[in-house]
Automatic annotation (TrEMBL):
Domain of life where this protein originates: Bacteria
Species lineage: Bacteria, Pseudomonadati, Bacteroidota, Flavobacteriia, Flavobacteriales
Function: Catalyzes the insertion of molybdate into adenylated molybdopterin with the concomitant release of AMP.
GO molecular function terms listed in the Swiss-Prot or TrEMBL record: metal ion binding; molybdopterin molybdotransferase activity
Protein name: Molybdopterin molybdenumtransferase
Chain ranges passing through the membrane: 286-308
EC number: 2.10.1.1
Catalysis performed (reactions): adenylyl-molybdopterin + molybdate = Mo-molybdopterin + AMP + H(+)
Pfam families xrefs: MoCF_biosynth, MoeA_C, MoeA_N
Essential cofactor(s): Mg(2+)
GO cellular component entries: cytosol
InterPro entries, alphabetized: MoaB/Mog-like_dom_sf, MoaB/Mog_dom, MoCF_biosynth_CS, MoeA-like, MoeA_C_domain_IV, MoeA_C_domain_IV_sf, MoeA_linker/N, MoeA_linker/N_sf
Length: 392
């Protein structure tokens, strides 16, 4: 049995970032990391653009200008202005090459075909230069940047419709157990509804990992072997729940061994989630989480989360931890460090009832896990406790 700290460092050390890439339509690229420098195919703005509704001027010494034409946004014509001439212009319109400043309309008096500005102005006032934001052929966004709504807008403004991004991992969730059936059928004696797959799939979707397939297998060695073999070959990450403990019908460990999965650890000194397994085969990472639902979810947040962040080459790879004031008492039984379902709010934390690893009812209310180290057995009101904030 290894310590939590050693288990976490083994995950960090053995998982390297994925460099597989994929092409995504721009509207589906939010949250992805750019795989290459993106070169701008155009100047942005693509023409000298008016930043104001007003008048484009070919500046001269007098304050009075002759009005000769009008250019609206989208117009393609190019009036030619001599010094002392002006055209009516609007925000976003192309500034004629022969105009060198824009005066906003609030600062102009119009008299028929003549306008008068209220003071002399500098060249280029209120003109957005060609390529001011980015020039054609320059890097629009650098490799490694995480795309967000602004990036999607920016790249679309450059006419880019698809991008090469770091592929998110293909993930298989495998649930094991003869007792598990789908909701929709009445339970027979001894059966329960299978819930880990939807729970973990939801947690993955919440973290924006969508390439997830669900698989189930009975407590049968051959079938477990077959399913694990194909899942490991076709996925970057395999998350198994159940069948990893020491019972006669727990076949996951035996099958992983038969498939030559390299074990990085099996059994962690913690509660819940003692029989946690982590291993690798080629480039696929394999977690076997305990079947007990709360143990599976707790292990997902404390361990699988880190693996996912490492795969994506993120800098923040662990969930945030805060020191919080406990507003209740808690007695820990046994010497295993414990992760406790809890509600954190503004520096205070409440440890919830129902800490058993089979129970999800209070996990449904939790937004945090309180971590109680091995050497502490009593938490008293107002004690400071380490609290892991969950991404919920
Ligand atoms: N002799 C020992 N027995 C057990 C030990 C031990 O050290 N010695 N450890 C216990 C601990 S701690 C845990 S945790 C469990 C883990 O066992 P498994 O990972 O093999 O899980 P199962 O036995 O298959 O299932 C445990 C529990 O969870 C329910 N389950 C399983 N899968 C699902 C699912 N997909 N959806 C909902 N519920 C699920 C299953 O019915 C069991 O009730 O082992 C202890 N035993
Ligand atoms: O490790 Mo188990 O998850 O304590 O019940």
């Amino acid at each position: 049995m290894i310590s939590i700290t050693d288990a976490i460092s083994k995950i960090k050390l053995s998982i390297t970032p994925s460099f597989k890439t994929t092409i995504k339509p721009i509207e589906k690229a939010n949250g992805y990391i750019l795989a290459n420098n993106l070169i701008s195919p155009i100047n942005m703005p693509p023409f000298r653009q008016s930043a104001m509704d007003g008048y484009a001027l070919n500046l001269h010494d007098s304050l009075t200008y002759n009005l000769i034409d009008e250019v609206k946004a989208g117009d393609q014509h190019q009036p030619i202005l001599k010094p002392g001439e002006a055209v009516r212009i609007f925000t976003g319109a192309a500034v004629p090459d022969t105009a060198n400043a824009i005066m906003m309309q609030e600062k102009i008096v119009v008299k028929g075909k003549q306008i008068k500005i209220d003071h002399q102005i500098n060249e280029q006032l209120n003109i957005r230069p060609l390529g001011e934001q980015v020039k054609k052929g320059d890097i629009a966004l650098k490799k490694g940047i995480k795309l967000n709504p602004a990036a999607i807008g920016y790249l679309t403004s450059l006419g880019i419709t698809e991008v090469s991004v770091i592929k998110k991992p293909d993930i298989a969730i495998i649930t094991t157990g003869n007792e598990l059936i789908e909701p929709g059928t009445p339970l027979k004696h001894g059966q329960i509804y299978e819930s880990n797959s939807k729970m973990l799939q939801t947690a993955l979707y919440g973290l924006k990992f969508y390439n997830v397939t669900l698989h189930k297998v009975k407590d049968n060695y051959e079938k477990t072997l077959q399913l694990l073999n194909s899942a490991i070959k076709t996925n970057d990450l395999v998350i198994i729940t159940g069948g990893i403990s020491v019972g006669d019908y727990d076949f996951v460990g035996k099958a992983l061994n038969e498939l030559n999965v390299k074990e990085h650890f099996y059994k962690v000194k913690q509660k819940p989630g003692k029989p946690l397994f982590f291993g690798k085969k080629d480039n696929t990472s394999i977690f076997a989480l305990p079947g007990n639902p709360a143990a599976a979810l707790s292990c997902f947040y404390v361990y699988v989360y880190i693996a996912l962040q490492k795969m994506m080459n993120r800098s923040e790879i662990e969930l945030p931890r805060k020191q919080a004031i406990s507003n209740c008492n808690f007695t820990k039984k046994g010497d295993r460090p414990q992760f406790l379902k809890a509600i954190y709010s503004e520096g205070k934390v409440e440890i919830l009832e129902g800490q058993n690893s089979s129970m999800l009812q209070t996990f449904a209310l939790a937004n945090a896990l309180v971590f109680i180290p091995e050497n502490i057995s009593e938490i008293k009101i107002n004690d400071t406790v380490e609290t892991i904030l969950l991404p919920v």
